[in-house]
Amino acid sequence: MNGLDGADDAAGTGGVDGIELFLLGRALMKLGEEALPEPPGGAGQYPGSTRSVVIVAGDIATHPNTTVGETAQRTGLPQSQVSGAVARLREAGSVETAPDPTDRRRTLVRRIPGTPARVAAVRATGTSKVEEALARALGETEADCLPEVTHALEILARHLVTRDPRQGLSPGPVNCP
Q1: How confident is the model at residue 125 (pLDDT cuts 50, 70, 90)?
Q2: Helix 50-62 vs helix 18-35: angle between axes, to the nearest 10 degrees?
Q3: Neighbour count for residue 66 (Cβ, 10 Å)
């Protein structure tokens, strides 16, 4: 893989191919899940994974006034998982549902403006849980790399994730300063 400073990897090939990028994304998702605090009442209180809730929340933030079926189609999650995630997000005060005014058989889902208490609580845990997850992933042999890896993640997040204070985080490119 290519370093953020432009240096080639040990093999001298440089760059990141699609497979490496995909695997990196999966590894980052797992680290993110590990760094999130458990939901109130423990993980067993709700069906479905935290991952599906975060995926659904991101999709709803990007596609306001959407339906459970549309979210399932875009995310590739089963409709039952999306329904469960929407129920959890509604209970947490992150989203609201309302009948579609043009077709009352459909229910629209949208984020509630502002930062819900649950999101604020997750963010209040700070970066310590992220650094703990990264330290475990790096292990003792790579512990000295923690500051560099943390900095690289900050750069990636700054360039690849949009942070709208009214809507939270959503995927999407951000223009370089």
Answers
A1: low
A2: 110
A3: 19
Return the ∠ at Cα 2 (arms to 55 and 164), rounded to 5°.
Answer: 35
Nearest to 116 by CA among 136, 96, 140: 96
Q: Is 28 in a helix, a strand, or coil?
A: helix
Asked whether the beta carbons of 149 and 130 are under 8 A apart, the reply is: no
Give pLDDT, residue 44. Answer: 60
pLDDT top residue among 14 and 41: 14
The reply to whether the predicted model has a pTM over 0.70 is: no
What confidence tier does 166 reach under pLDDT thresholds 50, 70, 90?
very low
Query: CA angle at residue 146 from 33 to 24, to 5 degrees?
Result: 50
- Nearest partner of 94 among 39, 41, 161, judged by Cα: 39
Residue 139 identity (one-letter amino acid)? G
Q: Round to whole Å and give the CA distance between 29 and 25.
A: 6
Work out the angle between the directed axes of helices 50-62 and 68-75 (0-180°, nearest 10).
110
